[in-house]
Automatic annotation (TrEMBL):
Keywords: Aminotransferase, Transferase. Residues 32-123 form the Aminotransferase class I/classII large domain. This is Aminotransferase class I/classII large domain-containing protein. SUPFAM superfamilies: PLP-dependent transferases. Pfam families: Aminotran_1_2 (PF00155). GO terms for molecular function: pyridoxal phosphate binding; transaminase activity. Its cofactor is pyridoxal 5'-phosphate.
Amino acid sequence: MNTFSKRLDRLPPYMFGKLKQLTHDRRQQGVDVIDLGMGNPSEPTPSDIIDKLCEVAYDPKNHRYSASKGIFNLRREICWYYERKFGVQLDPNHEATSVIGTKEGLSHLALALIDEGDLALVP
């Protein structure tokens, strides 16, 4: 018995996986490819950044999950950015959150906008 929805069979391949394979194939063909896919850096991280990361990793207060809405200072900076860039004022306590990536953000957006029983067109 299949316990998964039929929609899983229609899911396209993961775009970045496909791009990674194309990049690999082209490099195997001798093509000089500049990979702008997943944001993987081609240069090493600067040592001062690594040093700071190591320093803060030893601080026990950093051994916990961040707040579910994200760190307040980050949300405040996001709101300030939107004010400078777009001229809108946002409340960091009620109108800003941080997510771990685009997929999570889009999932949360759908949950915020679509109620059970609503019809949604999804490409």
